[in-house]
Design a protein that fits this description.
heterodimer, A: alpha+beta, Immunoglobulin-like, 2 domains, 13 strands, flat, B: mainly alpha, two-stranded antiparallel ribbon, two-stranded antiparallel sheet, 10 helices, 70% helix, globular
Chain lengths: 262, 308
């Protein structure tokens, strides 16, 4: 599996840069894992921190270590999102223009040793979808319904709105190295985090060149009673509505009976 | 302590939710008002999406009005025929209101319409309540008794067709006005998450000229059925009823209402009523301000809903 990854990585790199990474007999790479692959959203869910840890493998020239950079990108499930812009009409701020982005990640976090723009050229970042700038570029490509070539403003707003909800994060210097090979990093999934399949990609760079890449995944699901309620509400909405009414009737009458006795 | 709300898809402090239910329950127990027009704006202020706040509040009102309506039923204070005519209008209003919310959600205008409706109605109710309490205050100071209400006169309502006899209310009037009142109340229940008593009770007294003894029972009778229907319709059309939030609000509300009812018997009401009026006007002002002041973020995001 790792070999496949490395081989594909080498192929990718050779395609991208037209020459193979130099001298190393074994390609230098990275391996990583998450402390948990499954986050259950239960009644008391108020967000969670997830630990990602790993190691640099097949490291060649140790003198070169100072130049090693790492970016971790955590991406949430993509959804079709509609974005609206408010305008002042008759003194009121009202939603007017709107546009749709076909695939907006519900969560996007980058953790890096340095600001991502200093780690690699924008071309490499864009190709791998690393950083908010690349994300905005990708959003513009998947957009529909723009009236005045304002896709750029809308894409920037998508990032800004998510950032204000703590769903998009850019954390510089958030990766801790232990010794020469081991590293660990923690990212926060806030309480409003969308549910679904997440991926965490670890990219290593040396001198601006991508030298290693490892992907691991995470699933966030409602569980227990939360899951039951959500599924009932969306799959059997009529039954859900009737149950809600029966519960309310029972609660109201039960309370009345209780207080009449007291 | 946080609790995750499965439909609102966010977590909220348990004590905040119970406290809001308790305070609104206290006020409604004390003043005999329904809590919907207080609770829905509070939920919106705490960050619950307005569409979820409205539908969830309709669910809560089912609980807060059912025991009262059963008590009124036992005392035979319900004009069933009038209640059913009001309900007929209410059913139509609920269907229209829920469909309207669905369309407005797709257009991205639901928040605006809910806020505007609240600015209008809170401003109206708050002003009336404030004037009423100020007037009563001066009346009690000068020692004059409030003037007796004039006996019912024949008005334009008696010229309308489709007259029906309402024995319990001792009325022989057209079915059109009660149907229209019911329809308006159904619309308000669906769009604002209120029971609509604040519209229905004055309409019954001043417009339909029903005897006051049956007004409260008959309006509660209609409210239970209309809010139940609105809860089911919102569940089916919009999936915006958060039953976990509703149950917590009910728990807080039930306790608050009991304490409020006791407090209402012991405390002098007029100053407190003025305070409630100021609170209502304050919420009206805050909602209005949020519409007028340039928001710090002009853009908003929502999952794309397909138009059916």
């Amino acid at each position: 599996m790792i070999r496949v990854l490395i081989v594909s990585l080498v192929l990718l790199l050779s395609a991208a840069t037209l020459h193979l990474p130099s001298s190393n007999a074994h390609a230098e790479g990275v391996e990583a894992d998450l402390a948990t692959h499954h986050v259950a959203v239960k009644t008391d869910f108020a967000g969670v921190n997830v630990l990602l840890f790993g190691a640099i493998v097949n490291q060649g020239d140790i003198d070169n270590l100072a130049l090693l950079d790492m970016i971790i990108v955590v991406r949430g499930p993509e959804r079709e999102m509609r974005i609206r812009k408010k305008e002042r009409i008759a003194g009121l701020w009202v939603n007017r223009e709107s546009a749709t982005f076909d695939s907006v990640p519900g969560y996007y976090a980058t953790l890096s040793t340095r600001p991502v723009s200093e780690i690699a050229p924008s071309y490499t970042l864009l190709q791998n979808g690393i950083g908010f700038t690349s994300l905005q570029g990708k959003l513009i490509l998947s957009s529909t319904g723009f009236t005045q070539g304002n896709a750029k403003d809308y894409a920037a707003a998508v990032v800004r709105v998510h950032q204000s909800q703590n769903l998009y994060q850019e954390l510089k210097g958030a990766i801790d190295f232990t010794g020469q090979h081991l590293f660990r990093a923690e990212f926060e999934l806030p309480a409003n985090v969308p549910l679904g399949d997440y991926t965490a990609d670890v990219y290593t760079f040396r001198g601006g060149e991508l030298i290693g890449n490892y992907t691991t995944s995470l699933k966030i699901e409602k569980s227990g009673i939360e899951r039951f309620i959500y599924e009932l509400a969306h799959q059997q909405p009529l039954i859900y509505g009737i149950i809600s009414v029966i519960l309310a009737l029972a609660a109201g009458m039960g309370a009345a009976a209780l207080f009449r006795k007291a | 302590m946080q609790i995750y709300l499965p439909i609102a898809e966010q977590s909220m402090n348990v004590f905040l939710v119970l406290g809001m239910g308790g305070i609104v329950g206290f006020l409604s127990g004390m003043f005999g008002v329904g809590g919907g027009f207080l609770m829905t704006p509070l939920l919106i202020f705490t960050g619950i999406p307005p569409a979820v706040a409205v539908a969830t509040e309709a669910n809560q009102i089912v609980a807060s009005s059912v025991s009262g309506s059963i008590a009124q039923w036992r005392r035979k204070n319900v004009d069933v025929k009038m209640g059913l005519v009001l309900l007929a209008g209410g059913v139509v209003g609920s269907f229209i209101g829920v469909a309207l919310v669905k369309v407005l959600r797709q257009m991205g205008q639901v928040d605006l319409v809910i806020s505007l409706s609240y600015v209008f109605f809170l401003g109206f109710i708050g002003t009336l309540m404030l004037l009423e309490s100020v007037r009563t205050y001066y009346k009690s100071k000068s020692g004059n008794a409030p003037p007796a209400r004039r006996p019912g006169q024949h008005n334009w309502i008696h010229k309308l067709p489709f007259k029906m006899r309402f024995k319990r209310s001792k009325l022989y009037i057209s079915a059109i006005p009660p149907i229209l009142v019911g329809l308006l109340v159904g619309l308000l229940a669906a769009i604002m998450g209120v029971g609509g008593g604040f519209i229905m009770v004055p309409a019954m007294i001043y417009l339909l000229r029903m005897p006051t003894s049956v007004v409260v029972g008959t309006s509660l009778f209609q409210i239970v059925f209309v809010t139940s229907l609105v809860t089911i319709l919102h569940s089916v059309e919009n999936q915006t009823v958060d039953v976990v939030l509703a149950l917590m609000l009910m728990a807080g509300g039930v306790i608050g209402a009991q304490i409020g009812a006791i407090a209402g018997q012991k405390l002098k009401g007029e100053q407190l009523r003025a305070l409630l009026a100021l609170m209502v006007l304050g919420m009206c002002f805050k909602l209005g301000l949020d519409l007028v002041i340039e928001p710090s973020e002009l853009y908003s995001l929502a999952p794309a809903l397909e138009a059916h």
